[in-house]
Every structure is written in C-alpha cells, then in structure tokens.
Design a protein that fits this description.
The structure holds 2 protein chains of 2 kinds. Chain A is an alpha/beta fold. In chain A, 19% of the residues lie in helices and 26% in strands. Chain A has one domain: Beta Polymerase, domain 2, CATH 3.30.460. In chain A, helix 3 links the parallel strand 6 and strand 7. Chain B has a 4-stranded parallel β-sheet with strand order 3-4-5-6. Chain B has a two-stranded antiparallel ribbon with strand order 1-2. The chains are: A alpha/beta, B alpha/beta. The interface between A and B is medium-sized, with 18 and 14 residues.
Chain lengths: 175, 183
C-alpha cells in the first residue's frame, strides 16, 4: 500500500505538534515548515520511522527572502525521498536574517556534506557541526555570498563591455 | 624526403645574396624559425575548444602552419591557446600554466569568453584572461570558426617574425610582466 500524504501529516503532527506547520500539497509533493530548532529531530524521525522511511536526502538548498521580517529572511529547503514507496517530501526551515544558523544533517546523511557547503557558499548559512564548512564552487577569496539579493550578479570589474548591450545600469564607475 | 613538387617552403627573409652566400639578420632567421614551429598548448574549457579540435584535425589542419605538435606540457609549448570561459576559480591555474611556460611564450585568447568574459557577465567568471596574463592575439567570435582561429595563429606568426630576439629582455616587456606580477 502506498504511503498516503494524510498518514505522513498525521504522524508528524502527532509527534511534533506545533513544530511542524503549513502542510500543503505542491506539485504532488507534500510540503511543510519546520521550526529551525527541530530540524534534526524531524529529519531523523522521517528517516528512521518504520512507516515513513524517507531514506534519501535528495537536496538541500537555501532561499533568501530579504523582504520578510528578520526572523524569516533565510530558509533552508530539504527534499527527501522514500525509495520503498516512491514518495517525496519537502520541508523548509526559516532562519534569522542576521545570524542564519541551523544544525547540520551530515550526521544522518553523508550526502548532505557538499549540499550544505554549497548552501553556505551561496547564502552564508552556517550549518552547526558540519565537518568542513568552506566554499565549494566559488573561489576561496570571494567575500560575498552571491545568491543573497544584496549582492550584484554582475562582475563589477569588467572593463571592455558596453553596458547598453547587456541591458544593465552601469556599475563600472563604482568599482 | 619526398620529391613531390607541392611542398611549399617559406620565403627567404630579406638579405644580401651572392654566389655561395646569403647574409641576413639573426633576428629574422630566428623569427622565421620560431614562427613556423609554434607548439600550441591548448587550454580548452568549452565550445571554442571543440572548434579548435576541428582546427587541429585534417580538414583545417593547423599542421600546415608548423603547429602540429600539441604540447600538453606547458614547458615545451610556445603558444598558449585559451579557449573557453575561465571561471575565477580557474584563474590561478591558468596563471600557473602560463608561468610554467618557458620563454619565448605567446598567448592567444580564442573566443569572446577568453577575450572579455563574453556573455557571462557574472560574479563567477573572469572578465577576460588579460586580467591575469598578458595576451598577444585576440580571436573574436562565439565560438570562432576554425578559419578565424587559423587567422589568429597567422597573426601571431607575423608578430613572432617581426619580434627582436631580445624583445623578452626589453624594458617594455619587463614592465608588462611586472604589471601582471609575473617575474
């Protein structure tokens, strides 16, 4: 028998109560929100519960919401997959905009190592307890977290490009 | 040695010819030799590299210009061909490759990305390899056709031919190297 989303939701609310909220079915994937302090607990439950069996961490990524209030400016999205029943699940943990910190998932899934490094690399989200939290894709000397909205996507050091042809407001003057 | 008549030789440089002797400048002889045996070091990261593969192969045949010997070691190469997008993370490696080449050395930036960053106007891409190493010839195009790459090689041959043997110890060249912090 396939794993029903209602069963997942009941088990989670039964176990964690107010810590898991906002259940919604998006693109056939059950999505919900987890309080950032309970992330490891919820993920461990999803992985080890004999009914839920979400044995695979598909993805970890960051999101920046600069217009939200300070407690909800960053989010980390986790995607998990139950291979036995072929059911996927997705949850978000919102983090503080000035001090984005969350527990690492590397204790449960070794595959989270590089995904968390990438999230750190692009958003500056700190994963507490990560064995080697340093940049993975960008160069080590980089000082910005380029996927945060306050940083420009363009390279300010360009000298031989005509901004008119790139549809950009010139920023050469400031760099 | 083949005796067939379709073998083309380069023209002799300007000089004084008489019975049993030919006199010319050392610079031109050395330049001629260098220009017609430029050993390329292909540094290919993307689509321009594919165009260069066509340039190397039988149809366009860069061997006609004395460059058939691809050198995958920088130490035995004369001409560094940078083909493709160079990410900022790659920049120190490119620089190291250039530093490992022995003099005389020349650089061709093939394609828009190597020349200026191309369409990749973004935080992760080096906006032209001339930000980290000096470049002699720029080949435009996205990607350039093999004919354009060959034209770039021929332009470089012109530079090499007309260069003084001692150019590399000239104050201008040393100043250029110093501006890139290469000793």
């Amino acid at each position: 028998m396939a794993l029903e989303t209602s069963v997942i939701q009941e088990k989670l609310t039964g176990k964690f109560g107010e810590k898991v909220t906002g259940f919604i079915l998006q693109n056939d994937i059950l999505s919900f929100e987890v309080g950032s302090a309970s992330m490891a607990e919820v993920m461990g439950f999803l992985k080890n519960d004999p009914v839920l069996r979400f044995n695979f961490l598909t993805d970890v990524c960051g999101i920046h919401y600069p217009d939200n209030d300070i407690e909800r400016q960053f989010a980390v999205a986790y995607h998990m997959h139950n291979w036995m029943d072929n059911v996927r699940i997705r949850f978000k943990c919102f983090l503080n905009g000035e001090n984005p910190e969350i527990e690492t998932a590397t204790g449960m899934f070794l595959g989270a190592n590089w995904q968390e490094r990438e999230t750190y690399d692009f958003y500056g989200i700190i994963f507490k307890g990560h064995p080697q939290l340093k940049r993975i894709l960008n160069m080590d000397e980089m000082t910005s977290f380029p996927m945060r909205k306050e940083f420009p996507m363009e390279d300010g050091g360009r000298t031989d490009k005509d901004d008119r042809f790139f549809g950009r407001i010139t920023d050469n003057a400031h760099n | 040695m083949s005796n067939s008549k379709d073998i083309k030789l380069v023209d002799a440089p300007e000089g004084v010819e008489g019975q049993g002797f030919f006199a010319t400048k050392l610079d031109t002889v050395v330049g001629l030799a260098r220009a017609n045996s430029l050993w390329p070091l292909p540094f290919a990261t993307s689509c321009c590299g594919i165009e260069f593969m066509a340039t190397m192969a039988s149809h366009y045949d860069v061997a006609r210009f004395g460059s058939e010997r691809m050198s995958f070691s920088p130490r035995q190469a004369d001409m560094l061909l940078v083909m493709g997008t160079i990410a900022k993370k790659m920049a120190p490696i490119l620089r190291q490759v250039y530093e490992q080449m022995s003099e005389p050395r020349w650089v061709i930036a093939v394609g828009a990305c190597a020349s200026s960053g191309g369409i990749f106007d973004t935080y992760s891409v080096l906006q032209g390899i001339d930000k980290v190493i000096p470049v002699d010839v720029y080949v435009p195009g996205c990607p350039p056709r093999p004919e354009q790459i060959l034209d770039g090689v021929m332009r470089l041959q012109e530079i090499v031919k007309s260069e003084s043997v001692r150019r590399r110890s000239s104050p201008e060249y040393q100043e250029l190297m110093a501006s890139y912090n290469i000793t």
